[in-house]
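Q: How would the structure tokens look for this protein?
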Amino acid sequence: MSEQFYWGTGRRKTAVARVRLRPQGEGKILINGRQWKDYVGGSPRMHADLHAPLRLLNLQQKYDVLINVRGGGIHGQVGAMRHGIARALLEVDPHFRHSLKTAGYLTRDPRVKERKKYGRKKARKRFQFSKR
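A: Here is the predicted structure in token form.
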């Protein structure tokens, strides 16, 4: 007998998170096989971001969250995980859509790094101008 999972994919910057929710869980969150506290570190802001969709619907202790994430930095990964958890919760119950949407958890953040242009130091920064 196979377990039932609810899947969701989240994206942010260049990070992609594949999220599985396991019903009848104890509220454990595993990221790439590690505990979430070990993976994310000590930032309270990132802890709040990671748990936000579950806390909004008061489902922290009802699901185990298993996440595979790759690409980007830690902030982009946390944003991708939050997006993936919200999408997986939509698979659980479509009635969650309104509260998740108004909180902004279903919107993929489109901001990415601007590409470097030729003749410039970075995307917009210029080389120092010398008159003489």
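The first helix runs from residue 36 to 40.

The chain has one domain: 6-103.

Upvote if useful.
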